Amino acid sequence: MFLIGLGEELWKKFLPKYLESLGASVAVVGLFGTSEDFLDALYQYPGGWLADHWGRRRAFLTFLVAALTGYLIYLFSLSWPFLFLGLAFAMAWQSMASPAIFATIGDALPRERRAMGFTVQSMLKRIPMAVSPLLGGAMIGALGLRSGIRTGLLVTIVFVAMTIPVLRTINVPLAARDSVRLRGVWNSFHSTLKRLLVSDIAIRTCEGMADIFVILYVTNITGVTIPRYGILVAVQLATAIIVYIPSAKMADRLGRKPFVIATFLCFAFFPVAVVLAHDFKWLACAFIVGGLREIGEPSRKAMIVDLARDNLRARTVGLYYLVRSLSITPASAIGGLLWSIRPQTPFIVAGIFGIVGTFLFAATVEENYAGQ
Question: What is the model's pTM?
Answer without folding.
Answer: 0.79
